[in-house]
Design goal:
single chain; globular; Mac-2 Binding Protein; six-stranded antiparallel β-barrel; 2 domains; alpha+beta; 17% helix; 6 helices
C-alpha cells in the first residue's frame, strides 16, 4: 500500500532515499506534509524572469546622447574657427602679399621688381634712393629685403637717367653719376650683361659677391644745394640777390600768399595750409629768383599744373602740413644762377646737429613799411619740442633765432628751413606754425621734411609726366 501511495503521489521522488531498510512502519505522508523545501528546491532550478534587454537599451541611449552633444559642440567650434579665419582673411586681404593704395594686393615678390603691378604704381614708388651726403645709390632688393649698393662696373649715364626716373624725377632730369670707393665684401648689385639701359634700373641689376671696380655708384639727379656762404653775420636782414636760389613766392591774384622751396625743375614744396582754401592750380603763380615786389615786373610768372596736399593734413593740429606744386613748364637752372633747387635730406644724413640753420621768408623790411614784402633771412637753432607752444608731433621741428630778443614770428607759411652740411644746403623743414607766434624770440614750428621723403618721391613719380 505504501509503495502504491508513493507512486501515486506526484510530489515524491521515486528514488530509494525515502525508503528505510528497517522494518519500522513509516508514517503516512499527506499532501500537507510536502513542505517548502521542495518548493524552494524547485524555485532554485527555475531562472528568474528578468529581461536582459532593458539595461543595454538604457546605456545605448545615453551613449547616443553624449555622442550627439560632443558632435554638435565640435561642429560649432569648427564653424566659429572658420568664421574667424574668413573674417581675418577678408579684413586683411594682404596676409600673403603687399597692399596697394586702392586696397588691392600684389605678391611680395612683385614689390620692387621693375614692373608696375599696383594700379597707381605704389609697388615701384620707393625702390630707389640716395643715401647720405655722398648721394650713394641704393636699390631695395626684395629677395633679401634690404637696401643694396650698386657697383660702378658697367655703369653709364643712361642708367643714371633711368635711376632718377625710377625715383620720381621727370624724364630728362639728370645731373651726373659718380664713384665712391668701397672696401666691403658681398651684397652688391651689378649691371646685368646685355640689359636694356632704358628699362627700370631694378631690371638691369643682379646680385654679386664682388665688385670688380671696387667702387660704388653715386648719383645726382639735380645740381642742388648751391647757395650762400654761411659765415655771414646773424640777425634778421634783407637777403642778397641769388643767395637763396630755391626760395619762391607763391602768389594769388598778384599778391604774395606763401613761401616755398624748389626741389627739382618741376616741383615746389610748401605747406598744406597755404593751399587748403585755394586748391585750384589756375589760381596760383610762382615767382622764382625775386627779392621784393618790384622784381615780379622783370621776372616771368610760372604757372601751376597740379597741387597735391598731403592726404593726412589736419588743419587743427597742423600734422602732415606739407604740399607739392608741379609747374607747367620746367625751370631752367642753367639760365640763371639766381634759381636752383635745395637738396632733399637723404636717408643717413645727419641733420640733427648741423652747424648752421637758416630760415628765409617774405616779410616787411621795417615796421614802418608793413605792406611791402621783401625776402628776409635769419639764422636759427633747433630747440627741444617742449619749448614750442602747442602740441608738437614727430613730424615737426622747432627753431629759434640765434640773436636774442629778435622777433621770430611772421605770416609767411611754407617758407624753407635749410641747413648747411658737408658743403651743401639741405631742405630740412617748411614753416607751418610760425604765424601763430606772439611775443619776442619764440620758436617757430616747421614740418620735418625727413619724415615725408617717401611721400614726396611717390607723388613725384605718380605725376612725373602730368
Amino acid at each position: 500500500m505504501v509503495k502504491q501511495k508513493m507512486a501515486a503521489n506526484p510530489y515524491l521522488d521515486s528514488s530509494l532515499h525515502f525508503i528505510q531498510d528497517d522494518t519500522r512502519k513509516l508514517p503516512s505522508l499527506s499532501r500537507s506534509d510536502v513542505k517548502p523545501q521542495y518548493v524552494h528546491h524547485l524555485a532554485q532550478n527555475s531562472p528568474p524572469e528578468i529581461s536582459p534587454s532593458v539595461p543595454p537599451k538604457k546605456g545605448f541611449k545615453q551613449r547616443c546622447v553624449k555622442f550627439t552633444v560632443v558632435a554638435v559642440i565640435s561642429l560649432l567650434l569648427l564653424l566659429l574657427l572658420a568664421g574667424i579665419l574668413l573674417g581675418y582673411y577678408y579684413s586683411s586681404p594682404c596676409v600673403h602679399g603687399m597692399k596697394c593704395g586702392d586696397g588691392s594686393c600684389v605678391w611680395e615678390s612683385q614689390w620692387c621688381n621693375g614692373v608696375k603691378d599696383c594700379p597707381e604704381g605704389q609697388d615701384e614708388a620707393n625702390c630707389v634712393r640716395l643715401h647720405g651726403s655722398s648721394f650713394l645709390l641704393q636699390i631695395y632688393w626684395t629677395p633679401t629685403k634690404d637696401w643694396r649698393t650698386v657697383c660702378s662696373h658697367g655703369w653709364s649715364d643712361q642708367r643714371g637717367r633711368a635711376s632718377c626716373q625710377d625715383m620720381g624725377y621727370s624724364r630728362g632730369t639728370y645731373f651726373k653719376s659718380g664713384k665712391q670707393r668701397t672696401d666691403s665684401n658681398g651684397g652688391f648689385l651689378l649691371v646685368k650683361s646685355g640689359s636694356n639701359p632704358q628699362a627700370s634700373i631694378v631690371q638691369q641689376l643682379v646680385t654679386s659677391n664682388s665688385c670688380p671696380s671696387n667702387s660704388l655708384v653715386t648719383l645726382s639727379c639735380t645740381d642742388c644745394g648751391s647757395g650762400v656762404n654761411s659765415s655771414r653775420a646773424s640777425g634778421r636782414r634783407l637777403a642778397p640777390l641769388g643767395s637763396w636760389p630755391w626760395q619762391v613766392s607763391l602768389q594769388v591774384d598778384g599778391s604774395h600768399r606763401c613761401g616755398g622751396a624748389i626741389i627739382s625743375p618741376y616741383w615746389i614744396i610748401t605747406a598744406a595750409h597755404c593751399v587748403a582754401r585755394t586748391s585750384s592750380p589756375g589760381d596760383w603763380s610762382v615767382y622764382a629768383g625775386i627779392l621784393g615786389p618790384l622784381d615780379t615786373l622783370f621776372n616771368p610768372a610760372c604757372s601751376v599744373s597740379r597741387i597735391i596736399a598731403h592726404e593726412g593734413y589736419d588743419s587743427l593740429t597742423r600734422q602732415n602740413d606739407i604740399a607739392l606744386m608741379r609747374l607747367s613748364k620746367a625751370l631752367d637752372f642753367t639760365a640763371s644762377s639766381k634759381i636752383g633747387p635745395a637738396c632733399l635730406p637723404n636717408p643717413g644724413l645727419n641733420v640733427t646737429v648741423p652747424e648752421n640753420y637758416w630760415i628765409t621768408q617774405f616779410g616787411p623790411a621795417t615796421n614802418e613799411d608793413s605792406r611791402s614784402l621783401h625776402l628776409m633771412e635769419a639764422q636759427v637753432t633747433l630747440v627741444d619740442s617742449t619749448e614750442c607752444s602747442g602740441r608738437i608731433s614727430e613730424d615737426m621741428l622747432c627753431a629759434r633765432r640765434t640773436d636774442a630778443g629778435a622777433r621770430t614770428c611772421h605770416s609767411d607759411g611754407g617758407g624753407p628751413l635749410v641747413s648747411l652740411t658737408d658743403g651743401l644746403w639741405w631742405l630740412i623743414g617748411d614753416s607751418i606754425w610760425a604765424e601763430h607766434c606772439t611775443g619776442q624770440n619764440k620758436p617757430g614750428v616747421y614740418g620735418n621734411i625727413t619724415q615725408y621723403l617717401d611721400w614726396i618721391y611717390s607723388q613725384m613719380k605718380k605725376h612725373q609726366d602730368a
